[in-house]
Amino acid sequence: MIYLAAGGLLDANPGLLVWTIITFLVVVFILRSFAWNPILHALDERAEKIHGDIEKADKIRKEAEELLATYKAKINSARDEAIAIVTEANADAVRLKAKTVLETQDEIKAIKEQSIKDIELAKSKAVQELQAQVVDLSVMIAGQILQKKIKTEDHSEFVKEEIAKLKSMKA
Question: Are the C-beta atoms of 127 and 170 separated by less than 8 Å?
Fold first, then answer.
């Protein structure tokens, strides 16, 4: 036997149902008036703050990308400038080398010319000394000729021989 007790859980009591609905509506009205709007307002503010933070983060990201692009451009510019400096330094080194080689060649040429002049001068002095010795020798020979009193034919032949000797010495 199953007894249904009066006032069980599943029994519908119309008075209790009405009061429960009224209480629920009052609680909803009170929550809506005092708590619902502040909660919605706080949620809206939080959503706006999050949206603002996202926009701010996006703006910062874009600025960072622009700065990165600027730095990359500066790095590329600095690299290009460094390459240009190295290229210019290499060109300067080549020019300096060529200039040094030319200067050295000019110095060698000047030294060679000076050496040739010195040799010519020494040769000229030697020829002058030789001529002076020949004159002295000729005077001495002429003195000997006068002392011996040779004939005219011997004299002219002797002079011709001496002149030929002098010519062969100059050549």
Answer: yes
Whether 18 is in a domain gets the answer no
Q: pTM for this one?
A: 0.41
How many structural domains comprise the chain? 1
**pLDDT averaged over 10-residue windows placed end to end, the chain, 171 residues:** 54 83 93 83 93 94 94 94 94 94 94 93 86 76 66 68 74 57
Q: How many angstroms separate the CA atoms of 143 and 133, rounded? A: 15
Question: Distance (Å, rounded) from C-alpha 143 to C-alpha 149?
Answer: 10
Is position 21 within any domain?
no
Stated as kind and residue range, the H or E segment containing 171 is none
Q: What is the DSSP string of 120-139?
A: HHHHHHHHHHHHHHHHHHHH
Phi-psi region of 153 (alpha: psi -120 to 50; beta: other; left: phi over 0): alpha
CA distance 161 to 165: 6
